[in-house]
Amino acid sequence: MKNLKKQLILIILMLACGNYSCKKFLEIDSPKNAATPAEIFSNDVIATSAITGIYSRMASTGAFSGNENSISALCGLSADELQSYNPDLDVYYKNEIPTSDYRLNYNLWSETYSYIYTSNAILEGLKSATGVSNSTNQQLEGEAKFIRAFCYFYLVNLFGDVPLNLVTDYRVNEKNAKSSKQIIYDQIIKDLTEAETLLQSDYVTIERIRPNKWAAKALLSRVYLYLEKWDLAGQKATEVLDQNAMYLLADNLDDVFLKNSSEAIWQIMPTQGFNTQEGILFNLISTPSLVSLSSDILPLFETGDNRKTKWINKYSEATGEYYYPYKYKIRETTNNEIIEYSMIIRLAEIYLIRAEARAKQGQTTLALEDINKIRKRAGVLTPLEGLDQTQCITEVGKQRRLELFSEWGHRWLDLKRTGQATTVLAPIKGATWQATDVLYPIPKDEITRNPNVKQNPGY
Amino acid sequence: MYKYLRKYGVRYPHASKILLIMRLTTLIILGAFLQVSATTYAQRITLNEKNASIANILDKILQQSGYQIVANANTLAKANPVDISVKNVTIEEALAISFKNQPFTYEVKDKMVIIKTKELSLIDKFLNRLSNIDVTGRLVDTEGKPIAGATIRIKGTKRSVISSPTGYFELTNVDEKSIVAITFIGYKSLEVGVKPSLGIIVLTVIDSKLEEVEINAGYYTVKDKERTGSISRITSKDIENQPVSNVLAAMQANLPGVQVVQNTGVPGGGFTVQIRGQNSLQQGGDPYYIIDGVPFNSVSLGPTLGGIANNPSPLASISPNDIESIEVLKDADATAIYGSRGANGVILITTKRGKAGKTQTTFSFNQGISRVGKMMDLMNTGQYITMRKEALQNDNVQVSATDYDLNGTWDLSKNTNWQKELIGGIAPSTTIQTSLSGGANNITYLIGGNYYREGTVFTGDHSYLRGSGNFSLQYLSDNKKLSISFDANYSQINSNLFINDLTQYVTLAPNYPALLDKEGLLNWQNNTMYVNPIAETENPYTVKTSNLIANTLISYTIIPDLKIKGSFGYNVMNRNEISSQLLGSYAPVLDYGPSQRTSNFVNNSNSNWIFEAQANYIKKFNSGILNALVGSTFQQGLTNVQNIMGSGFNSDALVGDISSASILSASQNTYLLYRYTAAFGRLNYTLKDKYILNLTGRRDGSTRFGTDKQFANFGAIGTAWLFSEENFIKDKLSFISLAKLRASYGITGNDQIPDYGYLALWRPAPLYQGISTMSPTGLANPNYAWEVNKKTELALDLGLFKNRITLSIDYYSNRSSNQLVSKQLTPSTGFTGIQDNLPATIKNTGWEFNLNTKNITNKAFSWSTAFNLTFPRNKLIDYPGLETSADASKYVVGQPISIRKLYNTSIDSQTGLYVSEDYDKNGVIDFDKDLHVIAFTGRKYYGGLQNVFTYHNIGFDFLIQFVKQSGISAISNFRETPGRFTLSNPKSNQPTFLIADHWKSPGDEATYQKYSADFPAYLSHLYANYFGGLAIADASYIRLKNVSLSYNLSNQLLQRVKISSAKIFLQGQNLFTLTHYKGLDPETQSLSYLPSLQVFTAGVQLTF
Questions:
Q1: Residues B367-379: pLDDT tens digits?
Q2: Which of B763, B766, B825 is closest, CB to CB, to A34?
Q3: Three-state DSSP class for B704?
Q4: Which residues of A touch B776 (CB under 8 A)?
Q5: Do B372 and B502 meet the contact criterion of CB atoms below 8 Å apart?
Q6: Fewer CB near the terminus (10 Å): N or C of chain B?
Q7: A168: Cβ–Cβ under 8 A, 6 or more apart, which residues?
Q8: 3 state DSSP class of A24
Q9: CA-based angle B56:B62:B67, to the nearest 5?
Q10: CB-hemisphere CA count at 13 Å for A19?
Q11: Interface contact A453-B772, CB threshold 8 A
Q12: Burial class (CB in 10 A: 0-12, 13-18, 19+), B566
């Protein structure tokens, strides 16, 4: 009894004085269903899962997915590619986007910035990573920089001047003012140039769904093209085009958008157990409820251009005929078979970038060489010859429209960068078109919560 | 000494022997020790002492002789002082001199001196006997129930006995001139002159709660009279009068400053409890619950399927019958010792424990029925069709092919009162409770069991069942130094309710087809019905909740003034839910396939353990008493939720079997670990029984904060001045029996924020290339800190005419700042918000009144009244940056935080539609400046009035609750626009008050817009009802909350069948409500959730 009492007293006193261990007691592990940054960058596998997290989210829904909320759909509507059948989408078609749009426009902005945040977090994490091997560290750094550049490319093209956030610290970012397009582009070039050397030549997995060195060069050539640095654009394009062991134009138009097609430089793999979101969005099986392809494009195809028949399809019913992009053939996934991946950068664009760069530099013959490659692949076997520089440039523009329609807003961005937006769109859109519509409005929350960010003109 | 113990010593013989042996042992051990050191001494004794204590003398004899001395300390205490002067004498001689004048004698045996009580000579005994008498009596309470365990002491002596379980006591050989004092905790002490038969002595309960009642303040107890903090309390007596299944319901209207709102009348349903207002803009406002020292998760069990129970209350696991008392700590003085969790008040629940005495068995049974007390006035078919036709006419459209309610597809003459049909049932309830308690002095125990079953007022056979068991064991060592107690409470709730409350369907069109056909099968009326409420009730939804609370407390008195305590508590609650959607529950017209056959399997577990150690020190000084306490806490909580959804079952029969699903997906999995540690202390000094100072403090650490912000200090100062102890009151105003001024100020905190908010966590995102991916889920903010709540209180406690009238007036003022909010961020940061501190300040002030009067007290009849009243006020004092935040449409600085900002709506007398005012004249009705009408929602004042009557064996009492408030209007609960009918949502019936007061033709001035089914009407209806002038309405009410009538059966009758008491009772809850509120219930203010029900029960309680 006496002993028991003594022991009890001892135990109670010991625990009572146990405050010394309070700090230690409060050191808890991160939750079992989540990981801290330190854990994320503790080994190659989990660090890689951080970067693939971006691709997985891009593929799911939203701005980068190819569905009705995506850049492909919205920019297609803003330009002259797509028709709208939905009130939310109408505002894009009419170029009357409300600043308070809490869905589409807001998502374009916030989602892109969330990938930028993740890239920044990965870059910061890799710097202090302990358990990540050098080669993986390098590859992931390259991918993160590539993604950041890719995101800023779309931000700067959709919204104009935007805040340049390169760290994860919200206290810095929440006060960040807009940076000029020039500064954003400088950063994009810096990131891509670094990515170019960091990334491996081969894809890290057999599939072409994580960017490699050539993807960085391809995007860089596009950026130089947009900046009208023709020689650099051409140079980077050539570096990619020279990789003919890896990249070839697919002979058959039906093969272009298949997974890991020979033309694919970077694709995103669908994650939801379906084929691509583009396939689900565009392929019509009933009266369109979201979008259809504007028939304006049809007369532009030359006779024999198989893109008109192989990449465009038609749904007919009593109320009328509706055209739709038919690049992705699969709407309903059967037997869980995924045969198409969402194409982000492909070889045909690089040919056209070089063609444009060459044409701008007066190398019309060389430009036509590239143009004719694309035309030939489309089934137009008579090569174009003897075009002058202006004709050549026009032809590249036309080929870009015919080749890249409904893909990643190429048409919308081309109209804007070549200064044709108002000329082309005002007659189509009518009174709703204003010259300031070339930029989307910055979401209201960004402006009200950060007084340093000013709204774009016209909104 | 042994004699009187032995008289009722049937319970004690062993106990007293143990007592003796232990004491002897102690001395023997003592002697043995001393013997070792004494062996070298001679056995001759030399002593020279004057007026010395016998203990001292014996000590010396022992030292010199090496003898052992065996004595009972009590015997020695009676010794007379000794004068002795001897030199070198034998031990026998020395003893003989020392014991000459002592009232005891001794015996020497084997080097052992045994001291014994002197045997009285025969004559002495005889003489004593002549003047002494034997006294008997029996103690009962005012209800005639025997009082066991009371102490009957002969004044001026140490002799006392304890009354037997039947209340009897007997004292033998008592001086006939002596007086006995009878004391029992909670009852008035009594002194009576002895006589052979004292007969039946009635002990009355102490009038005033203010005197000897010990109040549980968590880490310490305090006499009500001496408390410095604001603590309200209800006891089992208040609870057992109310036929409620959740003890929170019994707290309604009884406690000033405590607002308890029932969210739904469904069994096991949720409650919202708020003590002294809402302190936090966004974070939890729940009080901190502690059951028998174990923190109890007060908020709903994480993300569950929820459904019908509307945030099921975890407290539903505790049977109200098991509860002895509930103390609500309100001000800083009372709550600061709970530091970071005390901001919203603390609710301490103490379960019942055994009392010493003969084994007592109680059994009670009651059977009740519940129903919806009041229905709404909804249109009948005639009125409904008139409304629909008027709408079509207004909209200038014809009856369409899908207007089944008008075009004759459905019977135009059928008139169903869906309220009666769907929620008009009678819900039976049964409560069986039994307990066994008893024990001897050292050990008391209680074992209890409860069974509760409640049906529903809904159609169909659904029930809610709770079984619980509780066990309590207390041990106190003979020397009263060591005490150990163990309490455990286990309950299991099984329910097969359904997931959607049928109340939402009472607005089905009155000519909607019957829900079941003649064969009793689901009716789909030739595929013209899309909705059938009965179909939903057939979807299986089973919930099993088990809950265990266990606590062990060990305390030990090291030295008389210092006591240390250690306690370990554990609480685990598991909730398993299976909710299925049968294919047969969908309207056949929807033509769904097996993929729509789904089941959710949710496993939710929440466990907490707590270890606490503390030391209490009490020191009496000449002028006062110092009470000090220090302690520490270690606590851990773990919540784990797994939700697996299965779909594609092949048959409705298999939906409960997870392995039969063709697709399984996991979602909403939660893992939250929470740890918490603290050191706390209290210093209390009472000077001259008049001036009391109470200091409490706590240093808390919690894992909910970043490394640098984990710890924070909280504390309070409380003072009281018992000015009734001052001579000027005692002399001049003697009718004042108690007058006390209390004041307190202190700081408490709130840590009811999500776990891990300071960590930048990455969570799994969908697979990529078949490999799991990770994505960041939020921004980390390691810098946010505790919400701070500064509480001030000033109070006056008065007792008049020997506390026949007692009155407490409390004024409180709480300012809570450093608000923990999810701060909004620019989306370009990658996220839209972050947990952070906002320098907004909320102030809660209020007045609380509590008046108790004993109006009549005499032997046959008594009447007492209790009245409480609370005036709460809430104000947003400061909110920097409110204008630019998203909260701009919610709050206004200088206004309560419970306001709603509304449009100024009116009826356009030409179009007949509601119009909202474009206040900022910018051409659009937007959510910025146009929401400019400020409507207060919430309580302006509330309280309760209770009257208790007893007449002989009959008890009668009633409780009236009153609430002055505004809330969600009845009309805004009608989601459909008057005049509109859709097949997918056929809840198109409307209240009759529209008939006389709606717009009919241009120029009409009406309250409600025209009947119309078109889109503009729908939009204006929406604006006016949710964001406009019709959204908020007066929801005040006066409710006859409780009536209880009881009768105690007479004792003679019962004793023949060995029942010591029997009570039969009738109770009623929510019997009558007076209100202007037009909806179903001004308390729930909802048409989606069942109102709080009217309950009638009859029962019997037996004690053996």
A1: 999 999 889 999 9
A2: B763
A3: coil
A4: 117-118, 121
A5: no
A6: N
A7: A117, A120, A121, A124, B760, B779, B830
A8: helix
A9: 150
A10: 16
A11: no
A12: buried
